């Protein structure tokens, strides 16, 4: 994407009512919407998409479930510009996007404020030195546990066999509750419909070349 196009998207994001771009200091000093997301939306459940990219999952789920609020989080605003713009064009009032780092999630949301989390095709961070950046490492799971309601669930959908295996091993080893796991959901007759019916741009490309898509649904137990 050209730099001029990026700048144009950044400027448009500034005008979008469904885009929130807090400064890091604002989050650290006490994010005003923490514990008060109902003032931005309503009292309906809140579902997050972490590392949302273009917001394809956020938008698709919001269309299907108007009584649930969806929030996409990503640091790259030029990417989720597409999702934010689509939501406004379609008058999807149950959608928002936050431009920030995912590790700040427990400063953005209060304890038990979130009903569900989706992590779709994250960077697997395969090198050992990048372990701390994997979105399903133990530190991230603790943050998710803080903001999720007691029965809240996390969904991980990825094309990375490494990420799938790493997460599954960590979950079993720590005693968390795995509700569903499969290494190739499009070859499994019992895969959840919501996982099969929504495909990201890159996912479609992976499927065209026969690359398996994996999925884990789990609850974090401590």
UniProtKB/TrEMBL annotation:
Q: Which domain of life is it from?
A: Bacteria
Q: What SUPFAM superfamilies does the record tag this protein with?
A: S-adenosyl-L-methionine-dependent methyltransferases (SSF53335)
Question: What PROSITE patterns does the annotation carry?
Answer: SAM_MT_TRMB
Per UniProt, substrate binds at: 127, 159, 200-203
Residues annotated as binding S-adenosyl-L-methionine: 49, 74, 123
Keywords in alphabetical order, please: Methyltransferase, S-adenosyl-L-methionine, Transferase, tRNA processing
Q: What does the record give as the reaction this protein catalyses?
A: guanosine(46) in tRNA + S-adenosyl-L-methionine = N(7)-methylguanosine(46) in tRNA + S-adenosyl-L-homocysteine
* InterPro entries found in the cross-reference section: SAM-dependent_MTases_sf, tRNA_(Gua-N-7)_MeTrfase_Trmb, tRNA_methyltr_TrmB_bact
Q: Which GO terms describe its molecular function?
A: tRNA (guanine(46)-N7)-methyltransferase activity
**Pathway where this protein functions:** tRNA modification; N(7)-methylguanine-tRNA biosynthesis
EC numbers, comma separated: 2.1.1.33
The protein's role, per its UniProt record: Catalyzes the formation of N(7)-methylguanine at position 46 (m7G46) in tRNA.
Q: Which PANTHER family match?
A: 3-DEOXY-D-MANNO-OCTULOSONIC-ACID TRANSFERASE/TRNA GUANINE-N 7 - -METHYLTRANSFERASE, PENTACOTRIPEPTIDE-REPEAT REGION OF PRORP DOMAIN-CONTAINING PROTEIN
Family per similarity comment? Belongs to the class I-like SAM-binding methyltransferase superfamily. TrmB family.
Q: What is this protein called?
A: tRNA (guanine-N(7)-)-methyltransferase
Q: What organism is this sequence from?
A: Lutibacter holmesii
Lineage, top ranks: Bacteria, Pseudomonadati, Bacteroidota, Flavobacteriia, Flavobacteriales
Gene encoding this chain? trmB
């Amino acid at each position: 994407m050209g730099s001029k196009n990026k700048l144009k998207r950044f400027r448009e994001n500034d005008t979008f009512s469904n885009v929130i771009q807090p400064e890091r200091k604002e989050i650290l000093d006490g994010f005003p919407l923490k514990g008060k997301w109902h003032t931005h939306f309503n009292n309906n459940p809140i579902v997050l998409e972490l590392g949302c990219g273009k917001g394809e999952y956020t938008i698709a789920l919001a269309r299907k479930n108007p009584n649930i609020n969806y929030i996409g989080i990503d640091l790259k605003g030029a990417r989720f510009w597409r999702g934010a713009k689509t939501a406004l064009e379609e008058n999807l009032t149950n959608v928002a996007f936050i431009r920030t780092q995912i590790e700040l999630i427990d400063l953005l949301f209060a304890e038990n404020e979130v009903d569900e989390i989706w992590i779709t095709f994250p960077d697997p961070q395969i090198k050992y030195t990048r372990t701390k950046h994997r979105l399903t490492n133990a530190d991230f799971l603790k943050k998710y546990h803080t903001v999720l309601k007691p029965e809240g669930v996390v969904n991980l959908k990825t094309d990375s066999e490494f990420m799938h295996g790493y997460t599954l091993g960590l979950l079993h080893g720590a005693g968390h509750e795995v509700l569903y796991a499969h290494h190739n959901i499009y070859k499994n007759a019992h895969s959840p419909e919501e996982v099969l019916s929504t495909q990201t741009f890159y996912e479609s490309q992976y499927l065209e070349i026969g690359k398996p898509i994996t999925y884990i649904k789990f609850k974090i137990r401590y």
